[in-house]
């Protein structure tokens, strides 16, 4: 006699196990996809911050303008304190 019934149930179990593995793979895959998406968002954010730090002040390839000229008043030009009053 040949018993085909146990082999069918074994095949059924094997199919159920494979289906379970496929479902688990999909769950892992969605988690991996989420992690990769978060990683890409983080990389874009860091790149944006780096660009902000390295961007020239004038922007768009133009030369940076020189700082505003200092006051030409005699007090500034002397570079030292100007005595006021009688300190003798």
Q: Could you describe the 3D structure shown?
A:
This protein has about 90 residues and is an all-alpha fold. Helix content is about 60%, strand content about 0%. The protein contains two helices and no strands. The model has no long low-confidence stretch (mean pLDDT about 75).
Topology diagram in text:
Layout: H1 5-54, H2 74-78
What structural category arises from helix and sheet content?
mainly alpha
Q: Count of DSSP helices?
A: 2
- Major β-sheet profile: none
Please state roughly what percent of the residues sit in beta strands, choosing from under 5%, 5-15%, 15-25%, 25-35%, 35-45% or over 45%: under 5%
Could you tell me the radius of gyration in angstroms? 38 Å
Distance between the termini: 132 Å
User: What does the overall shape look like?
Assistant: rod-shaped
Helical amount: 55-70%
Helix-strand pattern, N to C?
Answer: HH
Kindly state the number of beta strands: 0
Mean pLDDT: 73
Q: Which consecutive residue ranges, at least 5 long each, have pLDDT under 50?
A: none
Summarize the structure.
The chain is mainly α. 62% of the residues lie in helices and 0% in strands.
Question: What tags apply to this protein structure?
Answer:
88 residues, mainly alpha
